[in-house]
Design brief:
By secondary structure, the protein is α/β, with parallel strands linked by helices. Helix content is about 45%, strand content about 25%. The longest helix is centred in the middle third of the chain and has 20 residues.
């Protein structure tokens, strides 16, 4: 379960956000002041911060700086301050997003989901788009909730493709990275066989992840 630290001094909005986040299965630590937020941060290493800017004992900007000095954690500012310089200050402090009030709860929840997924991918070797889950560290693949059995070669292919998302990996590059170091000889035909076998395991008509750029190589197109 992902932990979210919410720092918002407006009681009604704080409770509304807590309800919406809990409903999405997040664990929420709620704070109404910078002091409370620091205590919550120290006791429950959050995966994401939702911060107001104007607070009774300081500013969300200062808390953001304090928190990021202690942990690399994504931040979304939620504030009524809609001046351009405030938004730029938030981004300069490393915030992922700067959302002005009033805002759409559905859009905010989507932003949170996307940011947490990207963070997990960067830090934990995880790809998760709701249909396909790839946990490279544990060599675990799920497609539509069902476990996929992949060979060591297919897993190495996945690692290379996911790590280079959106980039074309030529046949020669893939062969060199995957097999030359192990002293094995595998030609382009064998590579194609492994790719096709992998695609049958993780793809269906509505979910495509590996693109064959004819005559050149392969590309991971999953988001």
């Amino acid at each position: 379960m992902q932990n979210i630290l919410l720092l918002e001094d407006d009681y009604e909005l704080n409770q509304t956000l807590c309800y919406a986040l809990n409903k999405e299965s997040y664990h929420v630590e709620s704070a109404f002041s910078v002091r409370e937020a620091k205590e919550a941060f120290a006791g429950n290493a959050p995966n994401l911060l939702l911060l107001d800017v104007n607070l009774p004992d300081g500013e969300g900007f200062a808390f953001c700086k304090w928190a990021k000095e202690r942990k690399k954690v994504p931040v979304i500012f939620l504030t009524a301050r809609d001046l351009e310089e405030d938004a730029l200050k938030g981004y300069d402090l490393g915030a992922e997003d700067y959302v002005t009030k009033p805002f759409s709860m559905k859009i905010l929840l989507k932003k949170i989901s996307v940011i947490l997924r990207r963070t997990a991918e960067r830090e934990g070797g995880i790809f998760d788009d709701g249909y396909l889950v790839i946990d490279l560290n544990r060599a675990r693949i799920l497609a539509d909730g069902k476990e996929c059995s992949v060979t060591p070669t297919e897993l190495r292919l996945l690692k290379e493709l996911v790590a280079n998302k959106g980039q074309l990996l030529t046949y020669s590059v893939l062969l060199e990275r995957l097999w030359d170091s192990g002293g094995q000889f595998v030609d382009k035909h064998a590579l194609a066989v492994n790719i096709n076998r992998l695609r049958r395991k993780i793809e269906d008509e509505d979910h495509r992840y590996i693109s064959n750029v004819y005559g050149m190589g392969y590309q991971w197109i999953g988001r």
